[in-house]
Amino acid sequence: MSRQINLKTPLIVLLALSLFLAACATQMGDSGKPTETPIVELEAEMRVFSAETGKLAFAAQADKGTSYDLFMLDFTSGEILQLTEHRKADIAPSFSPNGKQLAFSSDRLDDYDIYLMTLPDGKAQRLTNVNADETEPRFSPDGRWLVYQSNAYGDFDLLIMDLEDQSFERLTEEDSHETQADWSPDGEKLAFVSNRDGDFEIFIINRDGSQETQLTKNSHYDAAPVWSPDGSQIAFISRRGTHFQLYLVDLESMEERALTDDVATVHSPAWSPDGSHIAFVQDSEAGSQILVVEVASGEFLSITRGFYKYAGLSWVE
Description:
CATH topology: Neuraminidase
Distance between the termini: 25 Å
Number of domains: 1
Helix content: under 10%
Shape: globular
Order of helices and strands: EHHEEEEEEEEEEEEEEEEEEEEEEEE
């Protein structure tokens, strides 16, 4: 049964932790444990993010040792609605473009499968049923397709499902891991992560599997690409020091800039619908939280806190 938490008094609710980072800790060489120093201290002068409309979905652990459940923050009312309550993990939420559905991954039947929930009633339908882990679903801009990652063929590959008949096609067939895909705003391309050259880099591929190009080329671990709403930039995380940090790359000039400092791990970036802000999760010994950075100014704003850990964000108008 869903339940509501009113945060209008005031709306100070910060969150964090990507299950992808925890699940892939051995690949990344990261312990997956909270870091010792918080990236941003929650000082009195930090402004609280506010919006008249929009919703933010996230997965979170209420307490240490509990399972991940799905929650939704309504920016209009300031309330958090708990969408799932299960002894297994529900993670990686992705809103449909109209906000009426939420795709997610769950291991409630042992392997991770893709599920589709209708909102606001919370009814969930299982979309995949194979002896494999299938995670990180992302809706196409027109709402018809889901891209997700599956290890049904050995390494993780990218698959695309037609939601009209639940048929699917295999987008990648490399002898490497291809994960964390995100659609371009026009639906013609996908950005994704691959370790085909020895470390994890970001690539771009056409929707039909043609014209694959490498976006990042370095000796670091790059992950979690998300396209800006206008298609001009991609936000991603990269570990170029001790911790994963948030970066932005301009797709015309190919110039990169760091949005956070190397003092704690951040992950799970999600653009605001208007492209003015990026929400992300920050992990620290002080706890996990969700912050927002204003892209133009670099100012950090708070959204919510109070949960133990977080795993994935999705933002819709």
